[in-house]
Amino acid sequence: MLFRFRKSVPPVIRPLHSDRAESCATIHAESFAHPWSPAEFETLLSSKTTLGVAAIDAASNALRGFALSRLAADEAEILTIAVHSPHRSRGIGRALMSDTLSRLADWHVRSLFLEVEQTNRAAIALYSRMGFREVGQRRGYYQKQRESAATALVLRKDLA
Question: What is the residue range of 69's domain?
């Protein structure tokens, strides 16, 4: 029997809306010890100060990953970014961040901040390649289920 291997098609990056709140919560739960509920995602995605970006599978229309940012004057903060576990390490996180940066620049955001767990080497490497730099730390920021709380690195990128 012959096996046919299909090259994976890159996801389509587009705005994220509250109708995807349930899928966001499912993907978020794979990535974080204290995931957000569908109701929390629905509230965030309904807010005029939240920018949501989705990575959608072109064939199935399924959510593969997302990024949420909150705007405040000429600054923004990445609230969360997550990629569905079977689709990690395929450039989806980078595509989500690139699209988010472009949209925030269009909205005249000058500075972007985020927190990342200091042990999350893959994320730190991605953010570093995208021009973020460490500007602080928050000890005990990430509560763990079976471990002591982890330190968050506070990163900043100037867009203007």
Answer: 12-158
